[in-house]
Amino acid sequence: MKHIILSDEIKQACPNFVGAMLCADIRNSAYSEELWKEIGEFQIKYRETYTTESIKCMPSIQATREAYKRCGKDPSRYRPSGEALVRRILKGTDLYKVDTTVDLINLASIAFGYSIGGFDEDRIVGDTLTLGIGREGEPYEGIGRGPINIGGLPVYRDQIGGIGTPTSDHERTKLSTDTKHLLVIVNGYDGNKKQVLACAQFIEALCQKYAEATNTSITTF
Description:
Blueprint: E1 3-6, H1 8-13, E2 18-25, H2 33-49, H3 59-71, H4 81-90, H5 100-112, E3 115-120, E4 128-133, E5 141-142, E6 146-147, E7 154-157, E8 162-164, E9 181-188, H6 193-210, E10 214-220
Parallel strand pairs: 1-4
Antiparallel strand pairs: 2-9, 2-10, 3-9, 4-7, 5-6, 7-8
């Protein structure tokens, strides 16, 4: 199991931060029809409940935007993924179809408003992840985005560099249909440990239902 350390710089910038890490053995797939039925039903209900204006008041989204500002990034230029996904469906566009595990993590991100990192644990180098703040010029290749300027973004680093920010995870550790060992991080910049844990448990249940997850464990930090 990986260990997560909060750097002094992130503690200073985001003193209320709480996180949850889920680890599981999974069998990923390219597509799950049953999952997408659930996602479709959820999207309909979500659009009936929220608007692009009302989501600005969601504590999870609001706190992540504030964290970006504290770390030195404009959240309107580099949107946190949780907010970007919510805005996407509220504008009438369906979620991306990537693979089953990514799709269910995206569902959880919309349901709770948190930016969530999903990683292939076998591709992470070393036993420790450290949450810090990105530096100008630090190399980082976002999934499907190419090089990203992560200066001023909260970033998880393994032994050789950054693997995850709330805007985009890194190509090097991304999930695929070959992934056997899943590591998920729920980022709670709102400090709501109860909701962060509930989000991780929601992902755990989805993984058990749609990705044959076993040996699951959740830790908070």
